[in-house]
Specification:
Radius of gyration: 26 Å
Order of helices and strands: HHHHHEEEEEH
Number of strands: 5
Number of helices: 6
Strand order of the largest sheet: 1-2-3-4-5
Largest sheet: 5 strands, antiparallel
Strand content: 15-25%
Structural class: alpha+beta
Distance between the termini: 61 Å
CATH topology of the domain at 67-173: Alpha-D-Glucose-1,6-Bisphosphate, Chain A, domain 4
Helix content: 25-40%
Oligomer: single chain
CATH class of the domain at 67-173: Alpha Beta
Length: about 190
């Protein structure tokens, strides 16, 4: 009997330790960003589209299996920025866009190819790994390919991030629904 009590005690202590450790990295725990009043937290979460609403729980407005690609702001912004270039390979699940060789028509011996790899879905500078390759061919059709970093790389990344920020804001505004819960929450 004493053995079972000890075993039960160790099990309870172990369960308590595991449950405390598993809560360590839970999102949304920053008190500076969340109101202390539970009703205000509910209002904020529902207005930002992070809550559960019964009025939309049974609606099936998903738009098919390919909705995920159009909801990723970085992906959409990247495709919009390089839409003038022919695409060689596009793989959303692999997180990469590769263009074909592109020449502006002024100098047919020089062309450019862009590779964009997505390291994260978050709109931030380190979420993109962009590589730009230049191909320069001489008269005998022998070509030299080099990877360059410079103003085009910086400008391309800046344009993608600024467009993705606009898409993210539009998406947040579109998903915003005013919370019409308790009467005491009026602004």
């Amino acid at each position: 009997m004493a053995y079972l009590k000890k075993l039960l005690l160790f099990f309870i202590i172990g369960l308590a330790i595991v449950s405390l450790i598993s809560c360590e990295n839970m999102p949304g725990g920053d008190a500076r960003e969340n109101p202390p009043d539970p009703d205000l937290r509910v209002k904020k979460n529902l207005e930002e589209g992070r809550g559960f609403r019964l009025d939309s729980a049974f609606k099936n407005n998903k738009g098919g299996d390919f909705m995920f690609a159009s909801s990723n702001e970085l992906w959409r912004a990247s495709l919009d920025i390089i839409d003038f270039m022919p695409l060689s390979s596009v793989n959303y699940s692999g997180g990469i866009i590769v263009t074909d060789w592109y020449s502006d028509g002024k100098n047919l011996n020089e062309s450019v190819k862009i590779s964009i790899r997505f390291l994260s879905n978050e709109v931030r500078a380190d979420a993109l790994d962009i590589k730009i390759f230049y191909k320069k061919c001489n008269q005998m059709a022998s070509c030299e390919v080099t990877q360059k970093k410079g103003s085009l790389l910086v400008e391309l990344k800046r344009e993608i991030l600024s467009k993705a920020t606009i898409y993210k804001k539009e998406n947040k505004d579109k998903n915003f629904k005013e919370y019409k819960g308790s009467k005491k929450l009026s602004n």
